[in-house]
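Figure 2 data, in text form.
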Amino acid sequence: MKRRKIAVAAGFCFSFFLGTLMNLLFIPGFEHHQSNRVHRSDQEEEHADHLQPRAAERRVHRDSVSAEPRSSHPDLARQIHERYNEVVRYRQHRAPWSEAGNPLRPLERRRLMDLAQRGSSEQLKAAEMMNSRPVDFNHGSSFSPLPAKAKLDFDINLNRNMHNPSLMGCSDIDNVTNVQYLGSGYTKAVYKATINETFSVALKSVDFGGHDMENCVKKYASPEDCYRLASYKIVKEMTLLQRLQHPHIIKLHGYCYQDSNDITDTLTAITELGNPLEMIQLLQTSWEERFRICLSLVRLLHYLAHSPLGSITLLDFRPRQFVIVDGELKVTDLDDASADEAPCSSSADCFMEFPARNFTLHCSSQGLCQSINEKRNLYNAYRFFFTYLLPHSAPTALRPLLDTIVNSTGELRWGIDETLSELEKLLHLYSNGLYLQNTTQAPRAEYKRVVGASIAGDNYRCWPSYNHEGCLLSVFSIQEAMDVCESHGQCHAFVLTNQTTWTGHQLIFFKAGTASLVPDPDKVTFLRVTG
């Protein structure tokens, strides 16, 4: 009897356990959690197999089944999907290099879509950490976009040949040195780093402590979804950098996906490094260098107006979006660029508002504001660059043409084609010394030419000078150098150097005396003897 009671009790307990298990297996949401465990298991396998990228890539490709984000916040999901579609739209345009192979393979498309594989139960686990651990390479932060070894280092270089250098990947930035924080904006943080101790690059990644991430996480409490939203801006910029090949657009060297801060597939873009554009310093340089910056900018805007993607506008048009590389201006930030032309039903819809003035453009028969992207770029170039850099200390004979250029762009009477044509004309006049035809005259003073000699000291300062300790200016000819010397009360000699500027003008050191005349086989000195 006692054994029978024990058997009945055991059967009852087993039935209760079995029933509970069946309920758990079939309650709503269990399948989702089960898939999350499988997903985490796959991630662990990928981590263990990172030396087998092909197998990992097949596993990743297998998971790409849907492009529809499944965020628990409809508004956030809508924003993510809109940015995803924008990137896809830019990628669908062919570029000349795409015939040789597209570095953006289905793998990266999957990474754009991988939000679809995540559910709401995973979206909250990093919120507290995200608010307390900002990105910081230099102060030992626990977050590091550059771990010792990336989770996966896929071979993104499809064209390994001498005519098409390979893009860089995760393995190239595993052991970067001299990492230095350069700055950040609303979305991205930018760092300078050295690869193989010889090659300097810029590394761009989502700023976890930036405006976009902080506001998004506070509003939606979904760090991973917020990261996806922000990272699409970097993917968009990478896409545009590959589609828009131009001397005045920064080069994309590569990119890397890796896991950081409990967020999978964080993205780092590897780009060409430039020097920040400092307007205060630029105002202190020679007119020739300032003209070079403006000409670089106009050549860039002309290309953007006629790009393979259509007319592109830089919505965030500020000097900080540009850098200097070997004296040339290059745009470095394209995440806010747009090829969308504003639709309209009448000219009243084509209203452009700026701090100083407004413009109303024509509404075309196609229902688009005519040349609005081009005009917006051009007016921003006028108000941020032309007014400060073009007129001041320009050669006297060129000032009327410069005034016309500045006024015509400021009133938007010209388009980018006319502006570029006039600046190229200006370059021709300056490079060939034609600006001197109406100003040259016989020198009032006499000069003695001394070959194989230089003046070591006797410096004086002038503005603008290529050398802050002396008066080093560029001239087209010896005649112009004599004119400059006679216009300076301190000048009693000048020394010809072996250096030329980008226009072919020669650099000349103007001196206040001749007491320190020394032998120098590579120099020629002109001593002012009368006048």
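Caption note: The first helix runs from residue 2 to 26.
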